[in-house]
Design brief:
Blueprint: E1 7-11, H1 18-31, E2 40-43, H2 47-53, E3 60-63, E4 66-67, E5 84-85, E6 91-92, H3 97-109
Helix pairs in contact: 1-3
């Protein structure tokens, strides 16, 4: 039996997108028959915490420890809101749902 993927969401209180990110993650996990209650939700509370975690902004989604969409070198990190790129190139405060689904499926099926 394969161990289920580890899914963690890192968030910062000042970012308005973190709650929607949690909903989106849990919804995708349920649709893929993954235990949505196993989602770890970790608040990043200050600069030291952000630096220690290498926090690229809120919300950050880690699947088996890997960033869903690793930030480029030009993207600032720390206590800030995250900017994702959708498949059509548009910037978004949340990742493209299809990217999230594919990453969860890949982790589930590994």
């Amino acid at each position: 039996m394969t161990e289920p993927p580890s899914v963690e969401l890192l968030w910062w209180r000042e970012c308005p997108s973190w709650e929607r990110a949690i909903e989106m993650l849990r919804e995708q996990m349920r649709e893929l028959s993954l235990d949505a209650d196993s989602l770890r939700v970790t608040e990043i509370t200050g600069r030291q915490d952000a630096e220690a975690r290498g926090f690229p902004g809120s919300p950050t989604i880690l699947i088996d420890g890997a960033d869903l969409q690793p930030p480029g070198p030009d993207q600032p990190g720390g206590l800030t809101c995250r900017v994702y790129r959708r498949r059509d190139g548009r910037p978004s405060p949340l990742p493209d749902p299809e990217d999230l689904r594919e990453a969860l499926e890949k982790a589930r099926d590994r």
